[in-house]
TrEMBL record, chain A:
Protein name per the record: V-type proton ATPase subunit a
Functional note: Essential component of the vacuolar proton pump (V-ATPase), a multimeric enzyme that catalyzes the translocation of protons across the membranes. Required for assembly and activity of the V-ATPase.
Species the sequence originates in: Galdieria yellowstonensis
Membrane topology note: Multi-pass membrane protein
Alphabetized Pfam families for the sequence: V_ATPase_I (PF01496)
From TrEMBL, chain B:
Record keywords, A-Z: Hydrogen ion transport, Ion transport, Transport
Function: Subunit of the V0 complex of vacuolar(H+)-ATPase (V-ATPase), a multisubunit enzyme composed of a peripheral complex (V1) that hydrolyzes ATP and a membrane integral complex (V0) that translocates protons. V-ATPase is responsible for acidifying and maintaining the pH of intracellular compartments and in some cell types, is targeted to the plasma membrane, where it is responsible for acidifying the extracellular environment.
Family the entry assigns: Belongs to the V-ATPase V0D/AC39 subunit family.
Subunit structure and binding partners: V-ATPase is a heteromultimeric enzyme made up of two complexes: the ATP-hydrolytic V1 complex and the proton translocation V0 complex.
Matching PANTHER family: VACUOLAR ATP SYNTHASE SUBUNIT AC39
UniProt name for this protein: V-type proton ATPase subunit
SUPFAM superfamilies (UniProt xref): V-type ATP synthase subunit C (SSF103486)
One MF annotation (Gene Ontology) recorded for this entry: proton-transporting ATPase activity, rotational mechanism
Cellular compartments per GO CC: proton-transporting V-type ATPase, V0 domain; vacuole
Organism: Galdieria yellowstonensis
Record lineage: Eukaryota, Rhodophyta, Bangiophyceae, Galdieriales, Galdieriaceae
Domain of life: Eukaryota
Amino acid sequence: MSSLFRSVEMVKVRLFIDRSAARATLEELGEHGLLQLDDLNQDKSEFQRSFSSDIRKCQEMQRKLRALELSVQECFPMRFQIKEEPISREELNTVTLDDLDKHLSSLEETVQEMNGHWKSLNSHRQQLLEHHYVLVLGSHLFRPGYLSLLKSENQGEEGDGGRRDNIRLMMNGKSNLNPSYTPVDIESPFLRLIAGVISLESLSLFQRLIFRVARGNCLSRFSEIEEVFYDEEKKENVRNCVFVIFCPGKELGRKMEKLCETFGAHLYPLPDDEASRRSLLAQVSNRLRDIEAVVATTHSQRLETLSEIGAKLALWWKKVSRELMIFHCMNMLNYDTSRNVYIAQGWTPQDQLGLLESLLHQGCQIARAQVSSVLEHRVSDSVPPTYFRTNKFTTVFQNIVESYGIATYRELNPACFTIITFPFLFAVMFGDVGHGLLMCLFASYLIIFERKFANQKLNEILQFCYDGRYIILLMGIFSLYTGLIYNEFFGVAMNIFGSRWKFNASSNFACGIDNCVDPSQSLPPKNIYPIGFDPIWSQALNGLTFFNSYKMKLSIVLGVAQMVMGIFLSYLNARYFQQSLDIFYVFLPQIIFMNAIFGYLVILIFIKWSIDWNSSSCLSNPSCRPPDLKQILIGMFMNPGSLDMQLFPGQKVVQILLLVCAIVSVPWMLLPKPLILRRRYKRLENSAPWRQQVIHHGNEEEKEENAQEQDFGEIFVHQLIHTIEFVLGAVSNTASYLRLWALSLAHSELSQVFLEKVLYGSMALNNAFAVWMGFLLWFGLTIGVLCLMESLSAFLHALRLHWVEFQNKFYQCEGRKFVPFRFEE
Amino acid sequence: MEDIRDLVAFNVDDGYIEALVRGYKSSLLTSIDYVNLTQCETLEDVRMHLNGTEYSTVLQDEPSPLSPSVIAEKCSAKLVLDFQYIRSQSTYPLTKFLDYLTYPYMIDNLVLLVTGTLHERDIGELLEKCNPLGTFPAMSTLSIVSTPEELYREILIDTPLAPYFAECVSFDDLTERNIEIIRNVLYKAYLEDFYQFCKKIGGTTEKMMCEILQFEADRRTINITLNSLGSKLSREERENLYPSIGSLVPEGTWKLARAEDVQSVHSILESYDLFRRLLQSSADNPGKSLEDAFIEYEVQLSKKTFEQQFHYGVFYGFLKLREQEIRNILWICECISQRHRSGISNYVTIF
């Protein structure tokens, strides 16, 4: 816990590692994540460093791995959706980088060869298949009566259904040939016949160009192939289409062929007499059968090889990326040529020095280095990085704080207060037992199956909830509590212990069960409801006024308490850093100012609560009426001498005294600190005459003085801004806490409206279906609007209250995060 | 008035893409990057350095050894990808504007393919050399045509270049000279059309783009004049090729049409402030041609487009700057691979 309160103490260390042990040592360091390395070669560009060739080698290996992964992924698309098992270090050490490099190179070659073979085999098969289709589909064109069939199709009549199952005929609409002449032409030797296969994508352009090139002077027929082909080049499925073109004349025929070629169409022979067509078809089918067999065996071989590779890929990836990280770190080291040692420098947590030393030792042992490594402490004037040790519970709170800013080194960490205050402030806005229960259940579900979820890839929203499961649980638990206080369960007041009020219909008043002496008077019960609000308040006409008054006062009390705590934390910081100036001239006036105005207001609130305004002595006294606290506070400033209503004896004096304190503390905050700082500078200057001797040049001296004057101006302006911010902030921040009241009001009103209008409204219809629908609607609204949207808005408001109202009192957040060299999980 | 319209309504459709392009612009290589690149010893070093820039992913899957052309090709592939992304996100009239930006590449591709076919080069090889920004349907079928009329009727009719081609249909056949003329006629028609389009858009776009297009037109006019000196091109034919926009119109073009040698061209240009400066700068540096000065000025104009907001000029500027950057990378890589260290600093620094 102490490490969460203030960041871990860091030391700058310099390591002298023997040349041979450097790599092993860095691997040990990366395993434990102890050291944030400084870049000692900042003046060198990336490719001038000593290990850039190794980095290049690793990147080359990564490229090979990517290529292999692509091939594997093509064959086993499902493989990569499962999260891999973690790989142990022993397993990683079974391969060395050089062996892996050689292995990968040979593998890449094999796979490339295999893929090339596969591709050529496939394209061969595809060609045969295409030829097959050309022969099958193309020969329909030669069937007797085909053209008359076409004609009837054009008229929309059903042709031979069986044949049209697997062919779709497309008319080249622009072809103006008179069909009755065509059968004669087919047999004519002057007519060129071109048949082939083209991809469906470029078909329309192809048709257009055929028409344009031949000027409509040819007949073309197209029919789509049902089978889908896989294009190895584009890595996607393509649909193809058989075409047959008849065109007159040799010249046009040649041009047509060229056109087909440029479109990437494959041309196949299609004899015009039936018998040779048939024999060719038989030939093609035979060869197709042969090649299918070869394809099948090749495919199984390929799968085998690739699955072997796929099983090892994760290991290799991890190995290479680890080595890459090590080399990147090695590039940051300095090499001492005279002593043959590498020098590393960086920050490390002080309490881990022992571990660091043992790691150094271990590294040397693994590498069997002759010279053991040396660890040396360095004094550094740069500010150490901030490091908080967190666990799975505290991480989320630390993250909430750090998304606002990283704590300055050794500064108080707001996260440890946030753990309780955040869920509590959230719950003040979200108080409802039912909703809190749902939230708890959801968070518990996430926590119970924590392990299972951790191994899964979750979607973005669920991941968000999963990361924040502990904060959600706490928010739910606190909502249960506040809901109990507010006495709300999905907007219904729970009457567990029996209301202590009794409603009297004749006088329209309610009075306490045990105090109902005079029914015309609304006397409170002597024994009050044991916990939270009496359920009758949700029925009472003045219930809302009552709740508002309570919640408004409550939010002021909570707000002032949190802010005062913030100011006290600034005192703890100042004491820790031994800044007495900040204690006497910042903290003291601030705490006085805050308490003189708003601390007093809180006390007034408690006094007002503690007075029994219904007691008989008060009722008989006309001046004993509950005062308006706002009026008192405003009156305290506007006319300090007068008082409308006295709450306690001596109130007038106290108020004037507090006012004086508040007014005095403003210049107290503003002036002394910069003035004292200025005097210190002056004194330092006078007591250090050597400084002026060092700087003999007149103008340089002037410069120095100017810089100091500016420094003073800067400090003064800074202090001025700080003071203004604090004074104005005291008012506006207190007002800002009223959002607690507003949000909790909105939440309870919304849940009540949904309950009454939707659920009760549908019940009033006396229809089972309507009730069912009404319930569904109400449930949906409860989950969607109340539990999700409202909780999100309450979360954001709680976030703001912490970031702005609480943290600006003490949190400097000028640090940088400690990023140790560590292999990622 | 139109400026105000830009101010109010520009972001409705084009705000996102403009922001995108400005993001792309800020990722252009800086002079420090270039200094680092010129210090590289091998192309592997170049890859290592590019890994730390916008081009980090483009080279990661390339096996060693690298060649300069592969690097340039991969970088342009990225440019094409970025441009196509912008194009797919845009709405009219920006879409149309972006289309206009691709027409010059189409013209270049067209000319390249027709010339290549004329010399009976393999069409596949030619297609690889084409700029992917200027692809148009049926590009590969260009090899089947033999006359301008066929070219128009069978292929160009489907492309946006069709209206520009109308004048060229009358040529009898496709000779090298005719192709060159066709290129210039197409370019002229394109520039004039684009100019009118930018005028129609109005506002800041008009202001920015018209200046750029006028310079482009002037540059073409001067180049046509310089290239046609001593050729068989008649005075009228030459004047016909000049774009009708630009700061040289009408007096300068009238004079240039009648210029006989380089000297007279220079003396005509001397009377224009901009061209006098460009001539001067090329005369001052011995290694620098007038074309280099033009390129530098173009880079300046492109950079200037980013100084104002709510206009389409940034898309033009981005495209030109990225192109120049790729040319720079290619130049540096060539110098490194050919061990030609002395000329390595002859790139055009952008930022």
